[in-house]
Amino acid sequence: MSITVSALRETAAGERRVAITPEVAKKLRGKGLRVLLERDAGKAAGFPDASYADAEFADLAQVLAQADLLACVLPPDDAALADLRENTVVLGQLRPHGAVARVAALSQKKLTAFALELLPRTTRAQAMDVLSSQAAVAGYRAMLIAAESAPKFFPMLTTAAGTIRPSRVLVIGAGVAGLQAIATARRLGAQIEGYDVRPETREQVESLGAKFLELGVSAAGSGGYARELTAEERAAQQQALAEHLKAFDAVVTTAAVPGRAAPKILTTAMVEGMKPGALIVDLAAESGGNCELTHPGERVEHGDVTILGPLNLAAGAPLHASEMYARNIYNFAELLIRDGALQPDFNDELVAKSCVTRQGEILFSA
Question: How confident is residue 237, by pLDDT bands cut at 50, 70 and 90?
Fold first, then answer.
């Protein structure tokens, strides 16, 4: 019997992505696997059922009853998990940090679950790195939101009514999202600067045509993330940053670490010191925000400064976000399937470290 790889229509509020695209369905079919999707699974992402030449479609109950490997963008709801057969493999962004009830449900049902956000940040894992692929989308969209919401043009314009100077834009955090935001601001014609506590990011920021903002604080960490600042380092950072912020028209913050609250980088006092009409787009809003005044999903007016806390930005560009995400899913699924059967190699670091539950056992220590 061939393995049945499935995906559902995502039901989380505002979620428009899909875990399996027509391209990936064709690849899976080429491996001799059966692809079974819930009807209209890809419709919101721009992939109608008719575009899936290599997939079968059924209603929700039939898909859950037949799936051997269920790919998802966000965690399936409790009812869907309850209807899966024991030993089904669940693969996607499962958000296990702090999700005690969800992890318990996966374990009680004896599901083998892999959370791709737990993948080690290694060179070999890059092709499966959903955090990076989706952060690229989020960084791009965050800067578009900044350009649309700012009261000023981003580029310099020379007109019969005079010359308009370009906006000064700062991106805080030079990870994947931050670098994509920088690149987008550059394309839009803004005068762009980037900042990160990891000194090794200077070269990446400057390679995109941006200036690196030097605040004199270094916090290089491991796994591609910055270490936590000491109280003295944080005070020095905030004092230096407060002075620089007065010159910027727009600030995009992107500093976040999976499973932890976002670091508070912009204080209320800093915001109050910014120029009238300044704008902050806080990409870390989902994990509490980098700004003390951020309200997730809301627009806040504090004095003459606007703070935006957009959520799930990757879902706002669902077609390309889904294409990248589905390729991540496919590349990881190749580690799980050998000789036409689901046989994960738990001696493989990528498999072992991303596994949350395995046939009733909880492996995610956090």
Answer: confident
What residue has token string 């981003």?
154
Nearest to 201 by CA among 184, 185, 217: 217
Taking 3-state DSSP, the helix, strand and coil percentages for the chain, each rounded to the nearest 5, stand at 35, 20, 45
Count how many Cα atoms sit within 13 Å of the Cα of residue 285 in the half-sphere of its side chain. Answer: 22
Alpha carbon separation from 342 to 22, 71, 76, 331, 333 (Å, rounded): 22, 14, 21, 14, 9
286 three-class SS: helix
SS3 238: helix
Token pair belonging to 266: 């912009």
Active site residues: 121, 126, 129, 132, 225
pTM exceeding 0.85: yes
Give the 3-state secondary structure of residue 352.
helix
40-72, pLDDT tens digit by residue? 999 999 999 999 999 999 999 999 999 999 999
Residue 154 near residue 185 (C-beta atoms within 8 A)? yes
Paired sense of beta strands 89-92 and 341-342, if any: unpaired
Check residue 238 and give its pLDDT: 84
pLDDT digits 0-9 by tens, 256-287: 888 889 999 999 999 999 999 999 999 999 99
d(CA 90, CA 105): 12
Compute the distance between CA of residue 220 and CA of residue 69 in angstroms, rounded to an integer: 38
Condensed to tens digits (0 to 9), the pLDDT of residues 204-217 reads: 999 999 999 988 76
User: Mean pLDDT, to the nearest integer, of 234-241?
Assistant: 84
Asked whether 107 and 279 are in contact (CB, 8 A), the reply is no
Q: Domains in the chain, please, with CATH?
A: 4-118+318-357 (3.40.50.720), 135-315 (3.40.50.720)
State the sign of the Cα–Cα–Cα–Cα dihedral 337, 342, 345, 346.
positive
In the chain, which ranges are continuous DSSP H helix? 22-30, 60-66, 78-83, 100-108, 130-149, 176-187, 202-207, 231-245, 268-272, 318-336, 349-354
Say which amino acid occupies 154. F
